[in-house]
Specification:
Strand content: 15-25%
CATH class of the largest domain: Alpha Beta
Number of domains: 3
Bound molecules: flavin-adenine dinucleotide, 1,4-dihydronicotinamide adenine dinucleotide
Oligomer: single chain
Shape: globular
Number of strands: 22
Number of helices: 13
Helix content: 25-40%
Distance between the termini: 73 Å
């Protein structure tokens, strides 16, 4: 039999696919990466959701809008007075688009440097490890390539509400919500998950009156309940209006806006907005991807079924990232990409799924790794709590950002750290220490005996570890 053209073909160049392709090439495998995405200029735009319409653009706008908020609310406390504030939203968007372009170009450069063959087109998996690639621009004439291994990394896309399709104008998804050229006066969001809270924060800071309708009875049910309660308190203070226990019954586009009828508990309510963002989760992108003869199976939510090593039921076909089950996070996707590349090349590759961090980039930020207090109660596992408020750290005081706390949960018998939860400003940069502590399986005592620089926000982690044994210095221990 003739040798396959490639050792590995990766379909999708998001954080799962491009990282997998680069690692495969580093390991000496002849690798190609097929991606269909094009930017507004009609050029290939690798990087997936994350770089083009996800992590990076949302963080760029979160940063821009935080400057506006600080200018309005915090500068005067520092003795800084500004006469007039003008917002140029198109310029803000141009800045965001430049960041995206630099990063997506960077992936092209990394592919070249590592010897990954970038193929622009729509990939479709055929039986026997063949891939049909249809160009998305130009001729649309498909080409068939073959490979020893195929890695599917086709990601996910926003879900619409049943009977309420996105129209790109009034009822929009997260991608469109990252490119508005004007601040809506009234903005509705369905879903107070990660997208709802982050994009709700962006547009509220820029001047929109934001109302979020959430189906669950409590905010952020996956977070530690104490953290979620504090988050809810902080969002309320910011006038980010979150209505829980809501069920949308209809939404109608009228008068250049959208009228949403919903039940809150048993009460029918009406919300009239200029734009409605639907942010109720994402679904795997598998449209047109699988020739039925391949025999790959999807679970009831449409995810590609894989085993713990990301191997599908088909010989040498793997699937990673948002197209398979697990948290829809860029770092989880990339880690799966690396593990699969190493498994293909060496037969070994592992992911520690117990220590995947979550971060919500609101202000205050919310971050955690490991088990919550609710998880431990449900498992009837005896635990200790170490808690330390940022208000008691010198650095947070100096920054004027004293909201929030660090909470450490440790095993009563072994002292091993089981979960670290935080809410506060800039904590996205602190969670790495928490991940390392958990990955290293250290105890709260080990963490409490680790010297933390002064004055830093990380001292709150140190003090929370001390507090787990009633030894915190800068608060009164219980
Ligand atoms: P994707 O990034 O979706 O990439 C898949 C790529 O494959 C896409 O470019 C797609 O066009 C392409 N593709 C699909 N089908 C085919 C095909 N048949 N042929 C060729 N190409 C195909 N995660 C974080 O960790 N941190 C964050 O701060 C964060 N912020 C986010 C903000 C928003 C608004 C959104 C929507 C998501 C955010 N995420 C964040 C989630 C993160 O973007 C995803 O988890 C991540 O991008 C998943 O990576 P992936 O490679 O699996 O898929
Ligand atoms: P999500 O799953 O985080 O939140 C969706 C929310 O919508 C949930 O709270 C859910 O209860 C609610 N909901 C579902 N159906 C509803 C309905 N009919 N009416 C009202 N509420 C409803 O999904 P989201 O926010 O769309 O984000 C998708 C994924 O993208 C996230 O799960 C996350 O994995 C990823 N992401 C990660 C970010 C980060 O890491 N900072 C930022 C943004 C997205």
């Amino acid at each position: 039999m003739a040798e396959a053209t490639f050792d590995v073909v990766v379909i999708g160049a998001g954080p799962a696919g491009y990282v997998c392709a680069i690692r495969c090439a580093q390991l000496g495998l002849r690798t190609a990466c097929v991606d269909q995405r094009i930017n507004n200029a009609g050029e290939p735009a690798p990087g997936g959701t994350c770089l083009n319409v996800g992590c990076i653009p949302s963080k760029a706008l979160l940063d821009s809008s935080l400057h506006v908020e600080q200018l309005h609310q915090e500068f005067t406390k520092h003795g800084i007075f500004v006469d007039t504030v003008e917002l140029d939203i198109p310029q803000m968007m141009e800045r965001k688009d430049r960041i995206i372009a630099e990063l997506t170009d960077g992936i092209g450069t990394l592919f070249k440097a590592n010897g990954v063959t970038a193929i622009h087109g729509y990939g479709r998996l055929l039986p026997e490890l063949r891939i049909e690639v249809t160009p998305v621009t130009g001729s649309h004439t498909p080409n068939i390539i073959d490979s020893r291994h195929v890695v599917i990394a086709t990601g996910a896309e926003p879900m619409a509400l049943p009977g309420l399709p996105f129209d790109g104008e009034h009822i929009i998804d997260s991608s469109a919500a990252l490119s508005l050229l004007k601040v809506p006066e009234a903005l509705g969001i369905i879903g107070a998950g990660v997208v709802g809270l982050e994009l709700g924060s962006v547009w509220r800071r820029l001047g929109a009156k934001v109302t979020i309708l959430e189906a669950t009875k409590t905010l952020l049910p996956a977070a530690d309940p104490q953290i979620a309660r504090e988050a809810q308190r902080q969002f309320k203070k910011q006038n980010l209006n979150i209505h829980l226990d809501c069920r949308v019954t209809s939404a109608t586009v009228k008068n250049n806006g959208c009228e949403v009828i919903y039940l809150q508990g048993e009460q029918e309510q009406k919300l009239t907005v200029d734009k409605l963002i639907v942010a109720i989760g994402r679904q795997p992108h598998t449209d047109g991807l699988l020739d039925p003869a391949t025999g790959l199976t999807l679970d009831s939510h449409g995810f590609i079924e894989v085993d713990e090593n990301c191997l599908t039921g088909e010989h040498n076909v793997w699937a990673i990232g948002d197209s398979v089950h697990g948290p829809m996070l860029a770092h989880k996707a990339s880690e799966e990409g690396v593990a699969v590349a190493e498994r293909i090349a060496t037969g070994q590759g592992h992911i520690d799924r117990d220590v995947i961090p979550w971060i919500i980039y609101t202000d205050p930020e919310i971050a955690w790794v490991g088990l919550t207090e609710l998880d431990l109660k449900q498992a009837q596992q005896p635990y200790s709590i170490g808690l330390f408020p940022f208000a008691a750290t010198g650095r947070a005081k100096a920054q004027g950002k004293t909201e929030g706390f660090v909470k450490i949960l440790s095993d009563n018998a072994t002292d091993q750290i089981l979960g670290i939860h935080m809410i506060g400003s800039h904590i996205s940069e602190l969670i790495g220490e928490a991940v390392l502590a958990m990955k290293s399986r250290i105890t709260a005592t080990d963490l409490s005996k680790t010297i933390h620089a002064h004055p830093t926000l990380s001292e709150a982690i140190h003090e929370a570890a001390l507090s787990a044994h009633g030894r915190a210095i800068h608060i009164t221990n219980r």
